[in-house]
Every structure is written in C-alpha cells, then in structure tokens.
Amino acid sequence: MTKHLTLLLFIGLAFWSCEEEIEEDTTPPTLSITSHASGQSVSEIITITATSEDDDGVSKVEFYLNTALVETDTTLPYEYTLNTTQYDNDQTLSIKVISYDNSDNTTETQFDLSVDNSTAVPQGVNITSVTYSLTVMTVDWEESSDGDFKDYKVLYSETEDGVRDTIATYTDQSMRFLILTEFDPTHENWFWVKVTDTVGLSSIGVGMTNEIESDPPTPSVLFHITYNDGFQINWSRNNGGDFQSYKLYESLSEDMSNDTLIYETDNRTDTTFIKTVQNFRYYQIVVEDVWGLQSTSNIEVGDYDIQLWGEPYSILNTTSLNLQSHGLTGSIPPEIGNLTNLTSLHLQENQLTGSIPPEIGNLTNLTSLHLQEN
C-alpha cells in the first residue's frame, strides 16, 4: 500500500511540472553604433557598423536612411555601406538602426551624419602643352596623384566656352599624353582632362589650346609668259615644309575675277605648264599648304603675235586695226578673232573676197567695224 501511494505522488509531481508555463522573453537586445558618432562629417564611401547582443540571440539588424529601409543584415558584423557622393555637401543624412532578437524584441538608435566631400574630390590636372607637326597633334598633361584614381577623360571643344566632348579615356594613371592624327591647327583646339576617382568624384583642371596656324605659304613668282607653239608658263618653286599643291588660274579680267582653274599639281618640282590654246588670258599661281592656307603670285598675261597679211600683231596691245586701202586681197583670215582687245577694225576699200569668218564674233570689245567697198 505504501509503495502504491509513493508512485502516485511521483506521477502527480511530474504531471504538475509539465504544465508549468515557460517564462516569456521581454528583454530587448543591446545595440550600439561603433563606426560613427552623431553629427560626424562623412565623405566618399562609408561603412556604418552596429554591435548588437541578446541572450536569446539577434535575428536581424535593419538600417534606415532618411526613413527608408536600405539594408537588413542577419550576421555579424552588422553593416551598411553608404556612398555619400550621391548627396550634396552639407546635406544631413538621418540614420536609424533597429535590432531584433528572436522573440521580436527590438532596440533602435538614431543619429545624423553630415556630408562633406569638399576635400575628397581628386585634385585636377592641367594641360601642359598642345603641339603639332605635319602629321600629329600631341596633348600633354600632369599626372594625377590621387590615391583612389579611376581614369582620365580627355575633353575637347573648338572654343574655350563651347560644349566639351569626351574624346579619349585612360585608366592608366601614368598615361600623360594623347596623339591625334586628324586635326586642324588653323583654328582653336581646346583640351581639358577630367580626373575621376573610384567613388565617382571628379575634377577638371586648366585647359589649353594650340597655337593657331595662320601664316600662308611663301608665294611663288610667276615669270613673264612667252609664246612658242603655246604659252610657256613658268613659276618659282615653293620649298615650304608644308607644301601641298600649285594651282594655275586664268581669267579674261586683269584683276583675275571669274577665274578658272586650268592646272593643278602636288609635285613641288613641277613648275611649268604649256597652254597650246591660243587665247588671250591673264594668269596667276596659287600655292596651297597642307592646312588649306593659300598665297597668290603676281599676275601675268599671255601675249603673242599673230600674222595677218604678212604682218605681226600683238593680241594684248592691238586695240585698233586700220588697214583701209591697203590693197588687201583674199579672204579675211580667221586668226583675226584672236585680237580680243580690238575696239575698231577698218578693212574697207580693199579687194577682200569670201565670207566674214565666224571668229569675228570673238571680238567682244569691238565697237567699230568697216568692211565696205570690198
């Protein structure tokens, strides 16, 4: 009987122990910020670090930036990485951190950070020279000393105040020059270098342009034009290092207005041209360099004599021809049409026969024509 009573008592105690309630965890986790103090100035990329502990274990730590949840970390160390370059200098960032334990008890802390990237911007590098030869233009600049250098961007504009376009990017910090094979030194070519660091901060140094190429090539001298089965046109050789071509023009006008290109060569030793067409014209040589700059020579006229009824007549100087009653016979020679400076022609009272040659129509300056009594 005693044994049965003892057994029942033991079973009752065991049952009462199983029914006892487990005590609820209401203790929140501890939380502290170990990386920054409230009001601290920050720059570039920072890591906010929090320490949190709880007897029941920490389930997660949340980071808020200006009320927005930006990071949830469940493992030590509890961290949030923030790129401050996205914000203006002197802007205040509100940071809130909440720690949760496994019983959903929470602890939070809040503090402010002030953005100041004014001293974090990489130091600008300046252009040191812009030079050119006949084939290349070279741009040189200083080397960046920035510790978190990312790249150089070479900027270009035709004017100092114009839009700056990126024409080259270099990630090698020791790179200090750019070579261009297509360029025009007859106008300004402005260059700058933009230095960017690994967090995206950048600066632009002092720019520079080239010395403008404005001197035309040395002009050639056009020599006196002679005639020998054609006009012998000769000029002096251009010895400039930037020589590109000779261009020979002709015109009916003494001032070379309405001129026409009749010959062009890029051979500097080619200084002769023979024109076989016997027309009265004025001539001029233009020398052009590789930059397109030009110089003009003196103007020479192509003159020669034509034979009319056994006598020579200059096409340049013959302005009036009076052969009245000279006993001329035969037809009027068509060569008379080359005397384009004629203003008066008197052939009356001769024994001329045949039709009037159409070349008479070339005498555009002719105001007086007499052919009667032939």
Could you characterize what this model shows?
The protein has 374 residues and is mainly β. The chain folds into four domains: 30-115, Sandwich (Immunoglobulin-like), CATH 2.60.40.10; 127-204, Sandwich (Immunoglobulin-like), CATH 2.60.40.10; 226-302, Immunoglobulin-like (Sandwich), CATH 2.60.40.10; 306-370, Ribonuclease Inhibitor (Leucine-rich repeat, LRR (right-handed beta-alpha superhelix)), CATH 3.80.10. It has one helix at residues 2-18; strands at residues 30-33, 40-42, 45-53, 58-65, 68-73, 78-83, 92-101, 106-115, 127-132, 137-141, 149-157, 165-170, 177-180, 190-197, 202-204, 226-227, 231-234, 243-251, 260-265, 272-275, 281-289, 294-296, 300-302, 305-308, 311-314, 320-322, 329-330, 344-346, 351-352, 368-370. Strand 7 and strand 8 (106-115) form a beta hairpin. The chain is rod-shaped and about 150 Å long.
